[in-house]
Amino acid sequence: MMNDLQKQLFALQDKEYAAFQAKLTPNIPADSFIGVRVPVLRNFAKNYIKNPEHKEFMAQLPHKYYDENMLHGLLVSQMKNYDECVAATETFLPYVDNWAVCDIMSPKIFGKHKDAFFEKIREWSASNHVYTSRFGIEMLMSFYLDADFKPEYLELPAAARGEDYYLKMMVAWFFATALAKQWDATLPYLQKQVLEPWTHNKAIQKARESFRITPEQKEYLNTLKIKK
User: Fold this and answer.
1) Helix residue ranges per DSSP H, the chain
2) Under 8 Å CB-to-CB from 133, ≥6 apart: which residues?
3) Average pLDDT of the chain?
4) Confidence at residue 161, expressed as pLDDT on a 0 to 100 scale
5) Contacts for 154-163: CB closer than 8 Å, 24+ residues apart
6) pLDDT of 2-58, one tens digit each?
């Protein structure tokens, strides 16, 4: 039997979108997708967080549907108290089981507490749980590659190890972004082949696809590819 929230989400259902999302997230059972489009779900979350019931929903883990997990991630992202947001994130991360839910979370409050938050990033990025590690690296990419950048930050994603595709893709995405923003500090990681070969080559591929990398830089990166 569906609860009231699930009924509200099904009222927003787009079955074609559900099928589309299921193909993009093959590790999740197809019947877990309700099919609420992300812009619609974002709007729903903005209103739902005003409802006191949202706290009860966030305490009821695990959720049944992919869309409920997406909603949970959006609610976490809207939290304005830093300590409460960190606690809510840590409670939810063990239940995150796909890249889309992981990547939907981006609490702005974290960017206002960078000194304290870096210690959480260090902890999360080293996690054995794929999506906790992915989230930690994504937050490092989001908040620490610009004015607050330090070369030692690159050591965290470089140390991430594992054969999971979605973790390796995040590391590659991180280094491609780091090349665009912090070329001089990041380049030695490719020159010295610090990353495992697949991730190394994927980072180069993604960097060469970026409009933020100059043609000369792209040409040089191509010479650094690891030949199989």
Assistant:
1) 4-10, 15-24, 38-48, 53-59, 66-78, 82-92, 99-104, 114-125, 130-143, 155-159, 165-181, 183-191, 197-208, 215-223
2) 124, 125, 126, 127, 160, 162, 167, 170
3) 96
4) 80
5) 154/178, 154/182, 154/185, 154/186, 154/189, 156/121, 156/122, 156/125, 156/126, 157/125, 158/189, 158/194, 158/195, 159/125, 159/126, 160/125, 160/126, 160/133, 161/196, 162/130, 162/133
6) 799 999 999 999 999 999 999 999 999 999 999 999 999 999 999 999 999 999 999
